[in-house]
Fold phosphoenolpyruvate mutase.
Amino acid sequence: MLASKPCLRVLEVHSPISALLAEQLRLEPSPGHSVAFDAVWSSSLTDSTHRGLPDIEILSPSNRLQGIREIFDVCTLSMIYDADTGGKPEHFAIHVKMLDRAGVGAVVIEDKCGLKKNSLFGNEVSQVQESVDGFCQKIRLGRASSGPQGAMIIARCESLILDRGMDDALQRCLAYVEAGADGIMIHSRKKDGGEILAFARRFREHCAHVPLVCVPTSYAHLSFDELQAAGFNVVIYANHMLRSAYMAMREVATDILRHGRTLEVEQRCLGIEDILDLIPGTR
């Protein structure tokens, strides 16, 4: 896909039904031009939240594999897997093999160590960045474990998240590419988006063809077209399916309590006939 399209749209999914929606949804904003999601994102944040657990790397790939298999039972889109820090290098190598066999197309690991905290906290909480040498060794082990035709290994740099500066981020990412990373994910929590666009410009001066990935959760005003024009090859909408689902469920449940019946919420719910027709073979 990366060879055939300049930039991919990727949507977070946390269940088979959300994956079905991601695959089936297609819009035609103008005649002869359609847009759809190219792949799905298995998020450690939404997978843990979906289970009522904190986002602290509590779920290993072994814990998440069954959910991945259930998604692939109903969805043919490629999957990018959020592997947090990847854990111990030796464990990461084994997990890459497991994920590769399950059908995962790319595995993302972030260059932090110790107890994982969500990146959007930044320096509000204690977060420790891995040494460059240590993280490069993890990349090498994962790359060797996956093999030339296996899952891509994408290195996620947290330097901008931790306010280490543009130079540190660039130096680290170039080292990760040298170590064998198949792509780079650069993360930022700055809401104006300037930092992420500036990084893309500088990175492209050194690496013209290495896939570059972004997650525009913080800089939500930047459009897909703008990010593509800036040099990004993958744009991941990383948590919106679960966030929106929770909001809808809370509002419906609240109104059932408020009114003592479901009449007031029926128009916000999928019709019974529609849900019976949603999955082939139900009737």
Remarks:
- Residues 8-238 form a domain with the TIM Barrel fold (CATH 3.20.20.60).
